[in-house]
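Input (structure):
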């Protein structure tokens, strides 16, 4: 990873246009960023080492972050929750192949003396199933010619890419437009997931990694969700607004520009480079 922000490579050729990640840093250093209903992760325990009464999972957290949070909340050795997954009897869709990524629904969960890693994970997955199996998500999947699991995958990318809830619908539309037109998604968030990191900088070398999550090198959606999306991202994935956008770039925080025109996108990218030089 480079120590300074490199100029984006958008202008080389049409087939390598890169999509910029969201205009705010989230999930860095363990994922302190919180959106919507998830206000904080109450993992600070009192001096008597008692368990907290609730555990809050923020939108967008990856499964590894959730496992770590459950371990800390239940005061069990690190890695216990991850090891519990195969025998937890989680009610996951067949497409998930036992991987709960995307189905550890962000919310506040009650804890008590009988809580175990398996019971907490089951609560999360059951909550996700109730959300995802509802009429709006299923109907949206049908309209968008995808299944529910793919809708969750798209929502996870929206959660990672959008700088605000207001941008989520447009990010969703960019994803669907690129899928419909047979254009690689080229999402930095999926590359970050493959590299197990969170950053706003993606190098050319990063985009050439051999991974099914490399949406620069591979067509279509990644094989699984890349995090656990919340309600807003799911709504955006199920019911995106109409639009012809194919590109977006966050010129500066709060200024994300969407366009269907490659030349306009190049101008936006130039402005992004100019702003980056000044910062």
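Output (sequence):
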């Amino acid at each position: 990873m480079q120590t300074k922000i490199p100029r984006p490579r958008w202008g080389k050729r049409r087939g390598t246009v890169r999509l910029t990640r969201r205009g705010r840093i989230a999930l860095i250093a363990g994922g302190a960023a919180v959106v919507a209903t998830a206000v904080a992760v109450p993992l600070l325990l009192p001096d008597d080492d008692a368990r907290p009464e609730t555990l809050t999972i923020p939108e967008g957290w990856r499964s590894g972050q959730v496992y770590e949070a459950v371990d800390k909340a239940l005061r069990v050795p690190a890695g216990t929750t991850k090891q519990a997954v195969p025998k937890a009897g989680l009610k996951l869709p067949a497409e998930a192949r036992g991987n709960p990524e995307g189905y550890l629904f962000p919310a506040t969960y009650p804890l008590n003396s009988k809580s175990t890693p398996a019971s907490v994970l089951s609560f999360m997955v059951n909550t996700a199933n109730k959300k995802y199996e509802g009429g709006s998500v299923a109907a949206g999947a049908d309209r968008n010619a995808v299944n529910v699991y793919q809708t969750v995958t798209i929502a996870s990318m929206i959660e990672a890419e959008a700088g605000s809830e207001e941008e989520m619908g447009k990010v969703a539309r960019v994803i669907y437009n690129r899928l419909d037109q047979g254009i690689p998604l080229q999402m930095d968030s999926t590359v970050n997931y493959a590299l197990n990191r969170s950053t706003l900088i993606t190098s050319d070398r990063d985009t050439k990694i051999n991974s099914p999550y490399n949406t620069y090198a591979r067509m279509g959606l990644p094989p699984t969700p890349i995090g656990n999306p919340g309600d807003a991202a799911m709504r955006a994935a199920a019911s995106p607004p109409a639009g012809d956008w194919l590109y977006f770039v966050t010129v500066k925080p709060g200024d994300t520009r969407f366009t269907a025109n490659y030349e306009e996108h190049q101008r936006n990218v130039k402005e992004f480079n100019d702003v980056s030089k000044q910062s």
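Notes: The CA atoms of residues 12 and 18 lie 10 Å apart. Strands lie at 54-56, 108-110, 247-252, 255-259.
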